């Protein structure tokens, strides 16, 4: 069994792989990289009722992996570049040998993966961290589930300037309800629910658009969304609206948040 551990800026994800197949996943969160990695490994083994001897090798990746040296609890441990890991994990999740990936974590990276080459196309600092950061100031909450709950009751018309606010018909291929300017209206009556939705909407619109431009530049008509951001249902709605306008599909695979950890484990199989 090989364990892949992705020590991200916000959360740590671990997976166990046997004969090329994911058999277990765990997620954890700690304040330092070593506690995160050992905690994730311990949780995985205890929950699976396994001992250290079942682990052949550990492969770490993610920003926190730089703090991990040769071994964890005596188990041989290697490190792999995060972009490489996302590319390998993405190909595993979509079951294709060529894919454009938008990995939405704390920040966002866009990657093109092929069996012979994995390329970092670019990215944006706008990501999940932007949602929690802006929410702290605007709605006085950093609890992700609370932010989502508020957003479900939000109305973008109180915060965003829409095309219908500035024109009595659509503009180009944009219909009257499309965004003209994120946070461009900010009416005095806007409440926490509206801010929460507007933040999520803006973050996913930015990510969606850069991912579409990246995909089109590589002649791809589909984008695989990975990272914890892939699990955000409101975010998925935003990306699906972009998909209709630009004719590029977004895929939200199961285990999307484990893509990086899966790629790490697969890289040394
Ligand atoms: N239960 C949760 N706890 C914390 N963050 C969550 C949760 N659910 C969703 N999120 C969102 O996911 C983001 C973190 O995503 P993810 O774990 O994929 O990033 P990461 O791998 O730690 O970061 P990066 O890859 O950018 O270094 C948070 O910023 C937050 O917006
Ligand atoms: Mg990550």
Strands side by side in the biggest sheet: 3-2-1-4-6-5
Number-wise, the strands total: 13
CATH class (first level) name of the largest domain: Alpha Beta
- Terminal CA distance: 9 Å
Largest sheet: 6 strands, mixed
User: Given the C-alpha coordinates, what overall shape results?
Assistant: globular
Number of helices: 8
| CATH-derived topology of the largest domain | Nucleotidyltransferase, domain 5
Low-confidence stretches: none
Element-level helix/strand string:
EEEHEEEHEEEHHEHEHEHEH
| Helix content estimate | 25-40%
What radius of gyration results from the CA coordinates?
A: 20 Å
Structure description:
The structure is a single chain. This protein is 38% helix and 25% strand. It folds into two domains: 2-79, ATPase, nucleotide binding domain (Nucleotidyltransferase, domain 5, 2-Layer Sandwich); 95-253, 2-Layer Sandwich (Nucleotidyltransferase, domain 5), CATH 3.30.420.40. The mean pLDDT is 96. The protein has a six-stranded mixed sheet with strand order 3-2-1-4-6-5, sandwiched between helices. Strands 9-8-7-12-13 form a five-stranded mixed sheet. A hairpin with a 4-residue loop joins strand 1 and strand 2 (12-18). The radius of gyration is 20 Å and the shape is globular. The protein has 269 residues and is of the alpha/beta class. The protein binds adenosine-5'-triphosphate and magnesium ion (MG). Adenosine-5'-triphosphate binds next to helix 3.
